[in-house]
Amino acid sequence: MNIILNSKFFSDLEPSELGKTIQAYGYDGVDLCVRPGHPVNLDNVDRALPEAIDMFKDQDLVCPLATAPVDLNDPSSPEARRLYATCEVAGVEFIKIGYWYHREPQDYWQVLADARTGLQGFVELSKSHGVKTLYHTHSGRCVGSNCAGLMHLLDGFDPAHVGAYVDFGHLALDGEDIAMGLSMVQSYLAAIGVKDGYHAPSPESVPPYRPQFAALGEGSVDWNRALRILVETGFDGPLAVHTEYQFDETIIRQVGYADTKPLGLEEVAQKDLVFLRNILSEIGE
Fold it and tell me: Structurally, how many domains does the chain consist of?
């Protein structure tokens, strides 16, 4: 399992500097965000992404995953088609697409039907370009907020072309047993999102708790158990560390992302890597 760093909070770094930073931290590679405000984005992806991948290769870093904007959920858009075609050329194995959302008082099953229609279009792009589509478990109002919900979306599609991107922090927030969830998506499991989360007291809120992220080991995720299950089931995909710390997840759910850097980002990102490697070493990986 390669441990890679999601670049969402490193948008100020050009790819060469991003690679040097990731090297210095000790990660195996990068989960590259192809998003507005980043050096590689949907407007310049056909030129900038292959150049970035070449730089990462020169730095002995892998880049198996490109993360699209949270609103990239239309497979017929020129941006989606360009992203898939460029990832094929650059040799990027996976694309994390955007989300479909349920908004009160919509009928869930109609939202799901529309999402599955959209996913079918992404599957066709994956077939054409040999780049697997990934859908990420995101707590809250997203379709696929946990593994059970994700299987509503993925079930029946070919796992050669679409995969589950399971995020343990989001499972902790929305409530799902790790072993049961991973068993549900076993035939689709392609990548793991690495973050930790818990429900923090918030007396001013109703109810008086709010979902929040934390450094690994400081939230509700049982990392020893989670990583042991991955090793025992032979998982060999990337572990993508998202470096979200002390964010109010309620806000992230509203806008789809966090737009400020976490305090102590560099130190905690390195501690998270050590945390993961120590557990993997203890269980013989």
Answer: 1
